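RNA polymerase subunit sigma-70
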Amino acid sequence: MTTDLISRARAGDGDAFRALTEPHRRELHVHCYRMLGSVQDAEDALQDTMLAAWQGLAGFGERASIRTWLYRIATNRCLNTLRSARRRPAREWGWTGMAPPEPTRLGEVPWLEPYPDALLAGASGVPVGPEARYEQTESISLAFVTALQILPPRQLAVLVLRDVLGFHATEVAEMLDSTVESVTSALRRARAGLQTRLPASADRAPAPPTASAAEDAIVAKFVSAYESADVDALVALLTDDVFIAMPPVPFEYEGLAAVTAFCQVVFSSGRRYALVPTRANGSPAFAIYRPEPDGTQTAFGLMAVTLSGDRIRRMVRFDAEALSWFGLPSPR
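Structure:
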């Protein structure tokens, strides 16, 4: 069947080409997102991948599967993007009438975007090789994807292909036009670099895709505290090592004292917000809207939270433009 589809696709049959590639489209999109940290960049890389596959199908030697061949193309398209340095730049603090407290540090990944759980539906059961080291849900978490972005491009590609997808070293070497020795060396360096960026293993896995009763309770308390601007109630939900980031603004706050000071500034202006629950990167998330005097609501952003036990350990706030990927009202 596959051989027949390949023959027809090579002859210019678009339907045959789609039958070959469509089953892999969602997982390739997730792969590009892991490598690039941006939904828009992942979409662009996926479109480039499909165009290159259509144009290059005559050169497909069938030594590997269509899936492996597509991963080779997608990975190299992502590497081209990473090496081009045309990423979204950091942006200055832009909230008028509100001066931020001194940040704990400046973030290094201003292009980071959230990934809607709805897009994971068709990619959650992708086959992984026996050498994969990370659960698929963990490897889409914001902490994991952020840590990946700090790695050099080639190390990033090797780690994702080997430890997330479980491809053999020989397959990865062929994908990257490299040697097994080079791949093994890059993987060793990538693992060391990644571990310095990830939180402790006990805390880094995101919540399960289906919200539990315990998660529902935390979410309800968070919404109540945030919408009522109750800083004390909000802080009571946070771990001692809680962390806040807000790409593309590079300011980051780590630790309960720093995050408390930030929350006090945000809510001291008298502004109030309405939250709409959704899910991003395998964890709870909230579209943030600001009610206006005329009864309308202005899209203000998206907040993704990571839970640790019965507390919130990580909050990442994104621009309102991200809401369009979630099917939610966003700025026009």
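The radius of gyration is 21 Å.
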